[in-house]
Amino acid sequence: MEKDKIQLINPEETVIKIEELYKSFGELEVLKGVDLTVQKGENLAVLGRSGSGKSVLIKILAGLLKPDRGNVTMLGKQLGQLQPKELDELRLRMGFSFQSSALYDGMSVFDNLSFPLTMNIKHLSRKQVNDAVEEALDAVGLIDKIERNPEELSGGQRKRLGIARTLIMKPEIMLYDEPTAGLDPVTCAEINALIVEVQQQYKTSSIIITHDLTCAKNTCERIAMLIDGTFLKIGTFEDVFNTDEEQIKKFFSYNFTL
Ligand SMILES: Nc1ncnc2c1ncn2[C@@H]1O[C@H](COP(=O)(O)OP(=O)(O)OP(=O)(O)O)[C@@H](O)[C@H]1O
């Protein structure tokens, strides 16, 4: 897959802007002045060692954690200035593919999708709900599983269902936390392809937190390397891969699975 051939929708428009972000837990300084922008239509991977603060960063973007200092602007709204209702409205414009986003195992695949839709958008007709569920399942290649229960699906299919559950709300931003973790190489490749399809079909802009270099290379226009609490290097995969920075070279040498 050749990511550099994808045309960004509007590379001039910034949809995520992170400025001078700090977060500590007691004595532990995790984020120490993080700056980052994501352009409209772009997929950006955040790479970093275990414990470097990737999940903390994505939780701040999702509004689940508050930073100690700094600003996050998403879709033109500054997170720190939003009232709870405004934050909820903003979050409806974002899709989350987190490991913790558990599926409802007691409900069918159809109900797993129709439930969040009808919870968030009132007064939809039965046909509108059916059409939306079918469109989201079609997008992730699970239309034939519509009457199954999630526990009957494989790990990769469950991941797809989780993504469909966010797509049903037509998100403008997608946040993926370790989308390929725990999957075999073939399933990883399928999820990577799906992430790119979502970007193209739904015109999303995304941040993808990952350890998986193949995922970063095949799904993202740019990579941001989180080391010692800041982004040491941001650029194309090749820019980052070919850097002389010792800590980045070490990260790539231990993670080289391409
Ligand atoms: N709520 C919390 N309270 C205290 N410490 C926390 C909390 N959340 C995260 N940390 C600490 O912050 C650091 C960064 O954690 P984080 O989960 O962001 O790492 P990560 O880069 O996502 O790692 P991994 O790749 O292993 O998932 C870790 O040392 C972690 O123990």
Automatic annotation (TrEMBL):
Ranges where the ABC transporter domain occurs: 16-253
Entry protein name: ATP-binding cassette domain-containing protein
Keyword presence, ATP-binding: yes
Taxonomy, superkingdom: Bacteria
Xref: PROSITE patterns: ABC_TRANSPORTER_1, ABC_TRANSPORTER_2
InterPro entries: AAA+_ATPase, ABC_transporter-like_ATP-bd, ABC_transporter-like_CS
UniProt keywords, alphabetically: ATP-binding, Nucleotide-binding, Transport
GO MF terms, alphabetically ordered: ATP binding
Higher taxonomy: Bacteria, Pseudomonadati, Bacteroidota, Flavobacteriia, Flavobacteriales
Pfam family, one: ABC_tran
